[in-house]
Write a structure and sequence with these properties.
With 376 residues, this protein is mostly helical. The chain is built from 17 helices and no strands. It is globular, with a radius of gyration of 20 Å.
């Protein structure tokens, strides 16, 4: 982190003082844990039920808004509702345990269910040249964002989460990398807010750029699939151009397949101590724990892909699983939205915002260049 930049929330290196990676007032829940001590310093009994009920209500509102206004993605509305709750001081202490549970556990469940939307034969459909475009786009965006984060003085954990979210699949990718990154809840919330913001803007901006950039529907779909972050945002963007949706979905889901290898690669590199001295490395050294090579829920994501690839699951079941995944993801994003505290972002998020915009421009440019070469 550059001189002069401070984090308002406790970093991992301060675990000895706080005992948690959470922002102040939330209940510590590790993804492996079994919900011990679900309590907040100010939340009374610390039951997650009130918070989960609030999350369920906000999720229903998010889908209702998205249905009334199809140009708005339910995931975007969910993040906004969570952010409004905390900034309007409606996120009372009694809700903290439930919203924290939603933002952590439900997000990991959404990642596992995302695997049911993927099948390895899709890579064959994409072809070697198309797969090369996807791999290069992901690699350049990830590495480039990490380097830009270092130049801008963004903390290693936050820049890692932003790089993962922009290069792969938005909030789901941030969740998959969270434990390896070793940041705190503010790092996760900022990364999710940025990919949600930029992905939502893409729904309106990218279709307007199609004609000036000279892209036919198939090429536009490939560009959207290679550059837009969340799967839902990809579908919403491509659906605005007739004939673009199929290419967008194939390219996007092929890109999502790279999530597990990326997480495992970063974890292995961190275990060998070859990634810079971030907060996670300091915490690992202090506790004797090293980042897992593959978090359990990411292994579940791979198992879901393998199961779908067998062709044994009926289409109806996969359709229901997709709907459940969208609902669970929206609920998780409501919880994550409660971590977007505007005064905190004003103090710590300016450089992260610049990094997110730069990463968005980078992924769009690399993807466009690859698509032009592919469709030449």
């Amino acid at each position: 982190m550059a001189a002069g930049e401070t984090d308002a929330s406790p970093a991992v290196g301060s675990e000895g003082r706080t005992g948690s990676r959470c922002r102040p007032g939330c209940a510590p829940i590790g993804w492996r844990g079994h919900l011990p001590g679900l309590r907040s310093a100010t939340a009374g009994s610390g039951s997650p039920v009130p918070g989960l009920l609030a999350v369920a209500g906000a999720t229903a509102v998010a889908f209702a808004v998205a249905r009334a206004f199809p140009v708005v993605n339910a995931s975007t509305v969910a993040v906004v509702l969570g952010a409004l709750a905390v900034n309007l001081r409606l996120h009372h202490p009694v809700l903290h345990a439930g919203t924290h549970l939603a933002s952590h556990r439900l997000l990991r469940i959404a990642v596992v269910l995302l695997g049911l939307q993927l099948a390895l034969p899709q890579l064959v459909e994409l072809g070697l040249r198309g797969l090369a475009v996807v791999v290069v786009t992901v690699a350049v965006t990830f590495v480039g964002t990490r380097l830009l984060g270092r130049l801008l003085g963004v903390s290693p954990a936050r820049s890692l989460l932003i790089a993962t979210g922009f290069s792969i699949c938005g909030a789901s990718a941030v969740a998959a990398m969270e434990e390896v990154a070793g940041g705190d809840d503010d790092d996760t919330a900022v990364a999710v807010a940025l990919v949600t913001l930029c992905g939502s803007l893409a729904i309106f901006l990218l279709p307007a750029l199609r004609t000036p950039l000279g892209l036919d529907p198939a090429a536009f779909g490939s560009w959207v699939g290679a550059s837009v972050h969340d799967v839902g945002q990809t579908v919403a963007t491509a659906d605005r151009v007739p004939g673009a949706l199929t290419a967008a979905v194939v390219v996007k889901l092929s890109r999502v397949v790279l999530l597990a290898p990326l997480v495992a690669g970063v974890a292995l590199t961190r275990r060998r101590g070859t990634i810079g001295p971030g907060a996670a490395a300091g915490a690992a050294a202090g506790t004797g724990r090293r980042p897992p090579v593959l978090p359990l829920f990411v292994a579940g994501f791979l198992a879901a892909i393998a199961l779908t690839s067998t062709g044994l699951l009926p289409a109806g079941l996969l359709g229901h699983a997709k709907t459940v995944q969208q609902i669970v993801l929206a609920a998780a994003l409501v919880g994550l939205g409660t971590g977007i505290h505007l005064p905190t972002l004003k103090r710590t998020g300016a450089r992260a915002l610049l990094l997110g915009l730069a990463s968005w421009l980078l992924v769009a440019t690399i993807a466009y260049s690859g698509v032009i070469l592919l469709h030449r």
